[in-house]
Design brief:
single chain; mainly alpha
Length: 50
């Protein structure tokens, strides 16, 4: 250590969040639980109708 004082909060490291999924990308990628529940209900009813 160099025994020098450092001001707290003066340095801010750059943060790159570009590799992470955005809300908009997630909305277009994943189905909502309600949509999945409806799909399962339709498939179950279709099996009963056979």
């Amino acid at each position: 250590m160099n025994n020098h004082w450092e001001l707290m909060g003066e340095y801010q490291a750059p943060i790159d969040l570009s590799p992470y999924l955005t809300k908009e990308e997630a909305k277009n990628t994943y189905s909502l639980k309600t949509e999945l529940d409806e799909e399962i209900a339709r498939a179950t009813q279709a099996e009963r109708d056979i």
